[in-house]
Amino acid sequence: FGSKNAKNDGTNDDVNFSSQQRERHRNANYSKDIKTALDALQLSCPPKGSREHFVEQSASALSKLSHYLTDNYKDQNSKNTPPLSIQHQNIQLLLHHATKLIELRTLDSLLRILRDRHIIVATRLRRTRSHWKWRLKLSRGRFGRGFYR
Known about the structure:
Radius of gyration: 31 Å
Distance between the termini: 122 Å
Helix content: 55-70%
Largest sheet: none
Oligomer: single chain
Strand content: under 5%
Mean pLDDT: 78
Shape: rod-shaped
Structural class: mainly alpha
Number of helices: 4
Order of helices and strands: HHHH
């Protein structure tokens, strides 16, 4: 009764409870992020498939995982929280690499879309140029000689 250790104000229990809550919250976030990364890495764009659809699906995953693209994900924790365990650091590193890979695949697909569109526009331009070149020759031929003398 009279000892100073007998007084228990619950602060130690509160700290443990809050760290347990923080740990559960981290694990839940990692679970969601891991599922998002796995789903995005399983996406594929088959030959003759829609790259635009692939980019749309990848973009939604990238928006959810974007905080892993910068090195700031290491500094997510405030100074009041204890440092991350090795397991959490490994999970973050894996998510960082997975997000980078998703980003590269998305950028590759975007470049291929742009290349295809550029080829289409260049082909149209060549056809239009050939058509007007032919029209110009035709107009300077028998029918158009009177106008250009």
